[in-house]
Write a structure and sequence with these properties.
Layout (H helix, E strand, L loop, with lengths): L1 E5 L2 E5 L40 E4 L6 E4 L4 E2 L11 H9 L5 E2 L12 H10 L7 H8 L37 E9 L2 E2 L2 E2 L4 E6 L5 E5 L10 E4 L4 E7 L9 E10 L7 E2 L3 E3 L1
Parallel strand pairs: 7-15, 12-14
Antiparallel strand pairs: 1-2, 3-4, 4-16, 5-6, 7-13, 8-9, 10-11, 10-12, 13-14
Length: 271
């Protein structure tokens, strides 16, 4: 049993082979294998050379595009609303099933880290790294985002939660997978701080120091970490995160085979 912080609440976690009642994630864990798939390139048609459904992010010589909305299940996918990672795997096996960035659909949840990587690759894209996700989220008015709700919303119900780059719902609604493993508490060749409120952060918005007290300069955002194991990272918070959610909110304490009802993703592509 373990206890994890979630706003003013603490949630008990029971770790087993199949189910994990989550720590600020509100989701269930499922084990699944990866499926290989061919990358299918998306058509490019929007300003900045971005594919339809993506927002342009100016980043000097490394400009890129990011999905405007959290990824949704594509129209040609056999399982329209996965309730388990095995159903996401069934979608991945269908060659014509691609992730879509559309405003009127619920985010694709119950997807593991590896599945999110595969799905982005199928669309000729990739999972964003820490810097790409952070820069695309800048300028988001967190007061307009879904962080005090009871369920996931489609993007058109929360369109005012947008960044300066016009990416929707990067804060709250669902946690979003971001590339880059954390191994035994070390990320990018440096040890991560212990779990706590963000006190300082690097240029990718990743905490370098934490505090027991909420920090207004970092929007009261919370950071989760673990000193051992190989962990994936998720950013932004989910619909029930409260003030813990934000552009500096990161879960670096989640296994790569985790999936759940409040965990999704979006993809990036080069211009």
């Amino acid at each position: 049993m373990r206890w994890f912080k979630n706003g003013a609440r603490f949630l008990m976690v029971t770790v087993g082979i199949v189910v994990l009642t989550s720590f600020g994630i509100d989701a269930s864990q499922y084990l699944t294998g990866s499926q290989s798939a061919l990358g299918l390139l998306a058509d490019r048609a929007t300003e900045g050379g971005c594919p339809v459904g993506m927002a342009f992010v100016e980043n000097g010589v490394d400009d890129y595009c990011i999905d405007t909305y959290e990824v949704a299940v594509g129209r040609d996918c056999p399982v329209k609303n996965p309730g388990h990672a095995s159903q996401s795997a069934e979608n991945i096996q269908q060659a014509s099933c691609l992730p879509e960035s559309v405003e009127d659909a619920l985010p694709w949840t119950y997807v593991t880290y590896h599945q999110a990587v595969e799905l982005c690759a199928k669309a000729g894209k990739r999972l964003p790294n820490q810097t790409e996700w952070y820069k695309a989220s800048l300028g988001t008015d967190e007061s307009k985002c879904s962080v005090n709700g009871n369920s996931v919303l489609p993007a058109d119900k929360n369109s005012d939660c947008k960044s300066a780059a016009q990416a929707i719902n990067m804060i709250g609604n669902v946690w979003e997978w971001v590339s880059g493993d954390v191994v035994d508490g070390v990320y990018n060749n440096r040890p991560l701080p212990v779990s706590g409120y963000v006190l300082n952060a690097d240029s990718a918005g990743v905490a370098t120091e934490t505090s027991e007290d909420a920090q207004v300069m970092f929007h009261d955002d919370y950071f989760w970490s673990r000193p051992d194991g190989i962990m994936a990272t998720m950013r932004g918070g989910y619909y029930g995160s409260g003030s813990d959610a934000g552009i500096y909110s990161i879960h670096a304490d989640v296994e790569l085979n985790f999936s759940g009802s409040a965990v999704g993703f979006r993809c990036v592509a080069d211009t």
